[in-house]
Amino acid sequence: MKDKKEKMSMKYFLIVVIFFLLSWSSVYAQSDYDFKVAEAWDFFKENQWKEAGIKYLEAFEIEKSYYSVNDKYNAGKALAEAGMLDEAFDQFFYLANHRKYFNYHFILESDDLLALKKDPRWGELVELVKKNKEYNEVGMDADAVYILDKIRIEYDLQNAERIKLGKEKGYQSQEMVALRAAHQPLKEAHLKQILELLDEKGFLGPEEIGVKNRNTVFNILRRARIETHDEYLPIFEEAFSKDKLTPNQYASIIDRISLFHENRQVYGTIFDYDKESEIYYLLPIKNPENVNLKRAEIGAMSIEERCESSNMKWDLEEHKKMTIEYDGSHSK
User: InterPro entries from the entry (predicted)?
Assistant: First the structure.
């Protein structure tokens, strides 16, 4: 009996060790992948296409189970610019066949891929992407999708630039201030286009423009001026009532409006960062004792779960104490 228990213990021990080693190797590989991609991006920004393309290919050899669409696209562009057409087409056919890439109008009009467009394989690739787009957009608003696809790609590229610079120089650095200023004209153009769509068509949901485009519309609107939030609140209300906004998206808009006008949020979606303690904290909530009831009314997760998802812990008494301190430091 004792031998049997010892064998069982050894078996479980080996399972744990194997699981640990597999997990460790996976984390190590992902870290190495990210490092290679970062190197590739540095070359990419300097138009050193061959070096960028090779680094991307090295990254893809490390992480073979999943690739970012942006990484694959950038690799394809770099390899095309470097004259490595076979390798470039490999990237785009992977996107079309395995990731169902469907940005048909973008690749058709893009100046990034001129070298590929002269190759006989280009027609086959374009047809694949077109079929993906048609399948993905059955019943969608084609005109709105066309506009929002372009906005989403530009928005994602700007966001990637900010994240990379933030990690390298810090989000409060002078370089970040300069980058945000450089991004501002395009951000304002995006907002103008989206507001024109809202005026013409109302808020379009996932079934009309796709989940990614809906999320991009929300992210751009969320950062708009309070006057815009106030003006379009009825449209946001209607969109949520028709399930075109998620509970958290709707709550975020309402909280921004409430914070501006009442210095209190309703649902607890907005955080701030304390430089001295270097921690994130929830900005003051109206009736924090009942915040979970308010969240439940719209189908949002509990405040405890929301905080946990951001590596925070909800503590009602601490929040009340913080609110008193916040009010004192923000009193007029």
Answer: DUF6624
Return all residues near 106 (Cβ < 8 A) that are at least 6 apart.
149, 150, 153
Return the residue matching tokens 């999943």: 66
Average pLDDT over every residue of 146-164: 88
DSSP state of 65: S
At CA 87, angle to CA 101 and CA 35, rounded to 5? 80
Backbone torsion region of residue 139, taken as left when φ is above 0, otherwise alpha when ψ lies between -120 and 50, otherwise beta = left
Taking Cα atoms as reference points, which of 185, 181, 249, 173 lies closest to residue 215? 249
Structure tokens belonging to residue 121: 């394989």
Residues 6+ apart with CB under 8 A from 164: 38, 41
Q: What is the largest CA-CA distance in the chain?
A: 77
Q: CB-side exposure of 34: number of CA atoms within 13 Å?
A: 8
CATH class for the domain made up of 27-136: mainly alpha
Sign of CA pseudo-dihedral 3, 5, 6, 7:
positive
Entry pTM = 0.64
- Nearest-angstrom CA–CA distance, 264 and 208: 34
- Model pLDDT, residue 68: 78
Q: Where are the domains of the chain?
A: 27-136, 141-245, 263-332
Query: Angle, nearest 10°, between helix axes 85-98 and 49-62?
Result: 50
User: How far is the C-alpha of 211 from the C-alpha of 244, rounded, in Å?
Assistant: 9
- How much is the pLDDT for 159? 87
Mean pLDDT, all residues of the chain: 86
